[in-house]
């Protein structure tokens, strides 16, 4: 599934530059539309005589110069959090902007500059990544640059590097990557682990000796703006043995390769949902080093977000817009009920209670389950020739409905989880 399906608009400008304008700065004004996530700017120069014209490139917003590459580049990108080196990411405020040119050398006959600007609109779409990884900043073997490069190769959009009891990784993230780097910190105690996401430095002191200390540390992270995840709470080696009533936002249902420890958390999560709690499930590889089984983005967490930024990705998770797959290749599962999707609540007066499931990257033998507050509602092995499937289910009288895909390990060898969605909820 392509995570970059943004709407875009392209405009072209042409500006003649006379020889008399040599050694001056020329502006090509343009209007920045509303709701823009990123722009790309490219240009070419047509000389009308010799010697060849030399025209430099930059851009300004309403308040300042936002970037300058001189004659080193013929194009650049400028986004909310990422930009081509030499350019400053940040707000793309609607209004009057301008492409900047320095008419360094202009032939006697002059030249023409042709500029192309593409505006990429904020478009709600599914982004994919890994919310639990480690690096050389704690007990991992990968550098930050290696982690980012691997995620790029996998076609992923984001990564959280959640090193144990340190925030040093959040201060040295590589800048020249297309992958969004979510600040992370794994609060690691002798009786359970928790991820803090979204802030550079969530704690000054990680050491705890009591439940009160744990509450205090979580309180500090919360005050500083972190989102809190209970990690692998039913793990065999490092389960969450503190009180489950601690402050937290999400639970890591799927940690690394599918195993019984994950199955225990899945059952616990289902109990929470059936009891009326709307708790978002996430996944994370917990990758530390090269390993034949524990790999980046396995599982892969998909988030429905409006922009490819830290804030919008975390907001999407907070809204429950999360689907999880065993790898970045899928299978990917989406649920719809009319205009409502995963994580959203169908109002009581909405008569349409039919859920539509759409799945892709399925394999032969995969089983799809739809699960509500009373257990399994649908359990089928869809026939598919292209890896896609679509199912309809009646959610009448249910408080929620979610989906799972189970994949056969080998003939007669049982099944492992291949995909999982958060629920669509229903007000009764």
From TrEMBL:
One of its GO terms (molecular function) is 5'-3' RNA exonuclease activity. Residues 129-191 form the Polymerase/histidinol phosphatase N-terminal domain. InterPro entries: PHP_domain (IPR052018), Pol/His_phosphatase_N (IPR003141), Pol/histidinol_Pase-like (IPR016195). It comes from the Bacteria. NCBIfam families: CehA_McbA_metalo. This is Phosphoesterase.
